[in-house]
Amino acid sequence: MYHNRKVLTAIVAVLLLLASSNAIMVNLAARETFEFIEDIHPGSALVFTYQVSKKEAGNVIDAVITDISSGERLLHQFVKTHQGTYTVLAETLKRRVRIELKNTYSVVSGVSVEFRLRNTQNDNSIKALDPLETEVSKIVEVAAELEKTQVELRTEQRDHRATVEDANERVLYWSIFQVAMLIAVSSFQLWFLKRFLERKSFV
């Protein structure tokens, strides 16, 4: 009975931990910066993952992670990247971090960025957990990797769909241009033939 209760508790813990992973999509205009602040409780870790929705040469951003609980200390900075992952640990004290997403390199077009925040157990504190809780933490890590892979596949699918739609749109415009040119050339030929026959009949 006690074992079943612990198993049920573990399942609930997995569901709660998986629910703590939030996916947010933001649209950054040219030269725009999006920032937010997140608190990390002692004994836990914050996993930050971001990915540009359409991976093209110009669609790169900067991501800056700063610890504002210890006097604006720079933790990590991603420069000109499509995606990235960074983990912030909180040992014994609560930490507050500021994360900035910067569309620095575009002067005209915007870019869409999807990012996720996942609160998990600090690896250093897992050793002190119950063996069942340790297994739960491992399951959560595996689920997080699967979720990350799913996000990447979804992004690739979105990019492919956008490419196909763009190609279809260009084919449509080219077809309209061909039809317009065909009508114009046919009209000119009919007009020229009419003028030619009129002059011939006049002579």
TrEMBL record:
It is found in: Membrane. Residues 1-23 form the signal peptide. It is a single-pass type I membrane protein. Keywords: Membrane, Signal, Transmembrane, Transmembrane helix. This is Emp24/gp25L/p24 family/GOLD, putative. Belongs to the EMP24/GP25L family. Its main location: membrane.
